[in-house]
Every structure is written in structure tokens, then in C-alpha cells.
Design brief:
It contains eleven helices and 19 strands. The protein is of the alpha/beta class. Keywords: Monooxygenase, Oxidoreductase.
Length: 382
């Protein structure tokens, strides 16, 4: 019988995004060797922001970086829901949890820097510009051939390589992301003095959000329906985005429209979800974050789920129990919660699509109720 207090000693993490770095930090802090294989030669993270609700901050705190994320981001309260003219009719968000505010807005680049600095500090090994080529996934360990010709032997492989996960395909087969018919446009701005919290404006053809990122910056997101062919040529991005915003007389929106000039700063992408069926593990390979459950940003929670996965998985991998039993506990603690968020986001997305296409919503459709119920549920312990 294995008497070691740390039967799992050596973990490979494929993908160095929010989920991959977080689980690596948590494992390394627990005394488990954590190595990240990241396909990019150098990290390239775009400059718009990300919403971290209180449960995301709780997970960041578990790996020791919540305070730094708040110091370098912009904590704010509940999001004000407004008509296109700016009239507030409600609010949304995860309620504050202990010392964590309802939200922290932060630039993705800065969040990445915060995680990376912590990962380097605790000694996570980064292997950049490579990925796995083949995997021999046995009940007692994993042997990996990397694309640079090197090899490695690990107790566990955690794959956190995003919605189009290569490892998921190699080990579990093909799962195709589902385009939901919506797209999101994002643009960074100087923060106006009047932006005292996050705002969402509900138009007939789009939704607009204004999210603080630092004391002097914010980003805007605009959700639209782009139909079956959602690709948009670069030279049309600025004009099309501005055209959507003409539906919003609200001062906070009108005051920034003229700043939209650079197509390179328009981050536009069609929205997809992915729900990997249970189990998210096979032998010694386990899936985390968007690779298992990619959601659309209607509830601003995809990264929060990846962070929570990381905290739970790292906690479990410290236990002296059979790995399969640990992975089963991971499924019990993560599957329903993640699916709840993805499915509620899909419902909200489906209703948005109907509205933007001029169709009536189904009887009983209540956006506020779905948002409120789901976000409240995220305050439960993980
Ligand atoms: C438009 C939009 C807005 C969003 N807004 C929010 C928000 O406000 N709040 C929130 O909580 N969530 C938000 N999300 C979700 C959030 O971005 C994701 O859930 C989160 O980034 C998932 O993290 P991850 O680490 O699982 O995957 P990813 O962020 O996709 O990271 C994957 C990493 O793996 C690397 N990689 C890919 N393939 C390989 C490979 N074969 N080998 C090695 N490495 C590989 C990639 O380069 C990357 O570094 C949003 C998502 C979208 C699309």
C-alpha cells in the first residue's frame, strides 16, 4: 500500500490559460510538481476585460491571488440594468461574498500577468511553443510524446486547452462546439467619470455592457445576432459596431462612440458552447475549464468555472485515494454546477436571439429570474 502523503507527485497541464495556470499554482502550492505545456511560443492575451464575480474572486483567493487581481482590476457592485436611454430598471450579479465585492472587472492581460507571476513565484514549469503529440493513458500513469520530440511520464494529465481541446479529441473523441447564432463585439475605452459600476443596456437588436477594468479604463461588449455566416471583414468592424450603438441614446454609450476608430481594437467573435458529457476523465487524463464546459458570456462566468474546477481538482489530487475515486468526486462537485451555468447561458442566449430577430419570447420567459437564480446558486460552496 502506498504510504506517501502525496501519491500524486507529478502533473502535466496542457494549456496555460486561466484554468491551466490556476490549477498549476494550486498543485505546486500543495507540493505537487506541475508542468504546463502551452502551444503558444509566447502568451498573447487580448486587451479587453473579463468580469470576475464574487465566486471567481473566492476561487482566486484559494490560490492566493484575489487581492492582487482586485488591486490591479476594478472592484464594483451589482450591474445596473438599463433601457437604451439609460433608465435603470433593475440590477444583477452575484451578491458580495465576505470581503469579496459583487464583481471585479479586470483586463484579461492583467489577470494573465497576475496568474503568471504567481505561477513563476511558486515554481511552475512552463514549456512554451509545444503540445502533446501522442498520449499513452494507462490506469497507473500517462506517457506523453511532445511535438518537439521530447517525452514525459506523469501521474496525471490535466487538459485545460480550451473549447477546441486537442487532448479531449485524442483521448475522448470528437465533440464539436455549438454556434449559438450570436456574436460579441468588444472594445477598450478610457473610463468615463460617470461609470460608477457595471452597466447593461437592453436594446431591440443588441445588448450593450460597460465594464470597469481599472480606475481609468473600461471595456464595452455588444451582443448581436449575425445569422448563419457570422464572419465580418475587418474593414467593416468599426462601422458595424458604431451602427449597433446608434440604438442607444444613453449618455454613457453616446459619449464613447467617437473613440471607436481602430479595427484592430475591435475584438469580434461568434459565440459557441460546448458540453462534454460525463465523465470528464479516462484513466489518468482529466479535463478542466472550457475544454469540458465552454459557455457564452451571458452570465460572465466561464472563467469563474475554470477557476473553481482548478481549486477543486487540486484539492482532490492531494488526497491519498485511488485516482478514479478522486475524479468521481471531481465530477460530483463540478458537473451539475457547470452545466447549470452553460444551460442557463444558452437559455438567455436563445431568448436574446429571438428578440433580436423580432420573435416573441416563449410564455414565462423571464430573463431576470434566470439570471438571479443562477447567479445566486453560484454563492454555494464549491
Ligand atoms: C466573448 C467572451 C467573453 C467572456 N467573458 C467572460 C467573463 O466576463 N467572465 C468569465 O468568467 N468568463 C468569461 N468568458 C469565458 C472565459 O474566457 C473562458 O471560460 C476561460 O478563458 C476558459 O479558460 P480555460 O483556461 O479553460 O481555456 P482558455 O482560456 O481557452 O485557455 C486555453 C489555453 O490552452 C492553450 N492551448 C490551446 N490548444 C492547446 C494545445 N493543443 N496544446 C497546448 N496548449 C493549448 C491556449 O493557447 C490557451 O493558453 C468569456 C468568453 C467569451 C468567448
Amino acid at each position: 500500500m502506498n504510504q506517501s502523503p502525496r501519491p500524486i507527485k507529478n502533473v502535466l497541464i496542457v494549456g496555460g490559460g486561466i484554468g491551466g495556470q490556476s490549477v498549476a499554482i494550486a498543485l505546486k502550492k500543495a507540493g505537487i510538481n506541475a508542468e504546463i505545456a502551452e502551444i503558444q511560443q509566447a502568451f498573447s492575451v487580448y486587451g479587453v476585460g473579463i468580469i470576475q464575480m464574487a465566486n471567481a474572486l473566492r476561487a482566486l483567493d484559494a490560490i492566493g491571488v484575489a487581492d492582487e487581481a482586485m488591486r490591479r482590476g476594478s472592484p464594483y457592485g451589482m450591474v445596473k440594468l438599463c433601457t437604451p436611454t439609460g433608465f435603470p430598471f433593475g440590477e444583477t450579479g452575484v451578491p458580495p461574498m465576505g470581503r469579496f465585492p459583487s464583481h471585479n472587472g479586470i483586463s484579461r492581460r492583467i489577470l494573465h500577468e497576475v496568474l503568471y507571476a504567481e505561477a513563476v513565484k511558486v515554481g511552475v514549469r512552463f514549456r512554451m511553443g509545444l503540445t502533446v503529440d501522442t498520449i499513452d493513458n494507462r490506469p497507473d500513469g500517462v506517457d506523453v510524446h511532445f511535438t518537439d520530440g521530447s517525452t514525459g511520464r506523469y501521474d496525471v494529465l490535466i487538459t485545460a486547452d480550451g473549447i477546441n481541446s486537442k487532448v479531449r479529441k485524442l483521448v475522448f473523441g470528437e465533440y464539436t462546439p455549438n454556434y449559438v447564432g450570436l456574436s460579441v463585439w468588444r472594445y477598450p475605452f478610457k473610463r468615463p467619470a460617470a461609470l460608477d459600476t457595471g452597466y447593461m443596456f437592453f436594446g431591440k437588436k443588441s445588448r450593450v455592457g460597460l465594464i470597469p477594468m481599472t480606475a481609468d479604463s473600461m471595456y464595452m461588449f455588444v451582443v448581436t445576432a449575425e445569422g448563419e455566416k457570422p464572419q465580418i471583414p475587418d474593414d467593416m468592424l468599426v462601422d458595424k459596431l458604431k451602427a449597433y450603438l446608434s440604438e442607444y441614446p444613453a449618455n454613457l454609450v453616446q459619449d464613447v462612440i467617437d473613440q471607436i476608430t481602430d479595427p484592430k481594437l475591435v475584438n469580434y467573435r461568434p459565440l459557441e458552447t460546448l458540453k462534454m458529457p460525463s465523465p470528464w476523465y479516462k484513466n489518468r487524463v482529466v479535463v478542466l475549464g472550457d475544454a469540458a464546459h465552454a459557455t457564452i458570456p451571458q452570465l460572465g462566468s466561464g472563467a469563474a468555472l475554470a477557476l473553481e474546477d482548478a481549486v477543486v481538482l487540486a484539492e482532490l489530487l492531494q488526497k491519498d485515494e485511488p485516482v478514479e475515486a478522486l475524479f468521481e468526486q471531481y465530477m460530483k462537485r463540478r458537473l451539475d454546477r457547470c452545466m447549470m451555468v452553460v444551460e442557463a447561458s444558452e437559455t438567455l442566449g436563445k431568448w436574446e436571439l429571438m428578440e433580436f430577430n423580432g420573435q416573441p419570447l416563449p410564455e414565462g420567459a423571464h430573463v431576470g429570474a434566470v439570471m438571479g437564480k443562477t447567479l445566486m446558486a453560484l454563492t454555494a460552496p464549491i
